[in-house]
Amino acid sequence: MLNTEPLVSIVILNWNGLEDTRECLHSLRGVTYSNRRTVVVDNGSEGREAAALRDEFQDSIHVIESEANIGFAAGANLGIRYALNDGAQFVLLLNNDTTLDPAFLAALVQAAASRNDGAAFCPKAYFYANPEIIYSTGGSVSIWTATAKQIGRGQLDRGQFDRVATRDYADGVCMLIPRRALDIVGFLDEDYFAYWEETDWCARARAEGLRCYYIPDARIWHKAARVQSPTNEYYFLYRRNALMFVRKRGTRVHRVVAVLVHIFIYGPRYFLIHPGKIGRLPAELKALRHQTSNRQPRRPFL
């Protein structure tokens, strides 16, 4: 019998996360939406993780190997390009450290099919270790302060986020993107390497008149507690990319205000109110120096 469901390609990045990726792929086996294909991009993992995934999951996944860690944005783009060439009508970007409600994908696709203005659709995400505590319902962003906020994070789910809503961005832990939106907006901006790439993509989509939606009937769980503890590299990349976002998407006034906010408001908060965070000072200063002195490339996305 002919399957009339739109084809969804699920793109998962693996970087030295074999056990999490295995659990995610096993969770996918229980998903009720049938017309789906799974693409795993191995982003320069050590050892034989790509081969191990091929051996275990065989024809149920397609594995793309990158010789080096090229970053989340570039790795995701490898998977997106493959998915589009494979005929996907939707691309689902999914973190490898997630587990899934069986009906989550059907809920996202149903919502996307009824909203032609949709750029990205995200689920209600919970903490894996605290399965009733919300991790994210999508986010809001301020170009004036170069800050982004996950809406609902840390709250007990009491039904307060049970309505479909628009968001500034769909959280990159899980976002369903229609092919038509990729045709309009293009791919993730690889200048970011990691962090803020989905926020940037959603801002570009909103500039094209598209919207990002939060879909509460779709539910997943994210192993946020397993994310690597913040390091100087993380602090540098996150702050650099936050200010890069302002530089790319805002005006000179936005850029000046954002830098001043981080120097005179967030700086004292980080290093005086929370003196234990003084160790991140070199990374924060490096990020500020990078954004105030370097010209940023503007790459094509198509």
Explained architecture:
This protein is α/β, with parallel strands linked by helices and 302 residues long. It has two domains: 8-226, Alpha-Beta Complex (Spore Coat Polysaccharide Biosynthesis Protein SpsA, Chain A); 232-293. The chain has helices at residues 18-28, 49-57, 72-85, 104-113, 179-185, 197-207, 232-249, 252-273, 281-293, and strands spanning 8-14, 36-43, 61-66, 90-94, 98-100, 118-127, 134-136, 139-142, 147-150, 165-167, 174-178, 211-222. It has a five-stranded mixed sheet, sandwiched between helices. α7 packs parallel to α9 (281-293). The longest helix has 22 residues, at 252-273. The relative contact order is 0.14.
Overall number of strands: 12
C-alpha Rg, in Å?
19 Å
Number of domains: 2
Q: Decide which structural class fits the backbone.
A: alpha/beta
- Gross morphology is globular
Provide the β-strand percentage band.
15-25%
Output mean pLDDT: 91
The helix/strand series, from N terminus to C terminus, equals EHEHEHEEHEEEEEEHHEHHH
Q: If you consult CATH, what is the topology of the largest domain?
A: Spore Coat Polysaccharide Biosynthesis Protein SpsA, Chain A
Share of helix, binned: 25-40%
Largest sheet geometry: 5 strands, mixed
**What distance lies between the first and last C-alpha atoms, to the nearest angstrom?**
36 Å
Low-confidence stretches: none
CATH architecture of the largest domain: Alpha-Beta Complex
Order of strands across the main sheet = 3-2-1-4-11
- Helix count, DSSP H or I runs of 4 or more residues: 9
* CATH class designation of the largest domain: Alpha Beta
